Amino acid sequence: YRMLxxxxxxxxxxxxxx
Length: 18
Hints:
Elements: H1 2-12
């Protein structure tokens, strides 16, 4: 799950998840 969130943020350009 965390990996999916990380990838999602990465695509958004934030690079790091909350």
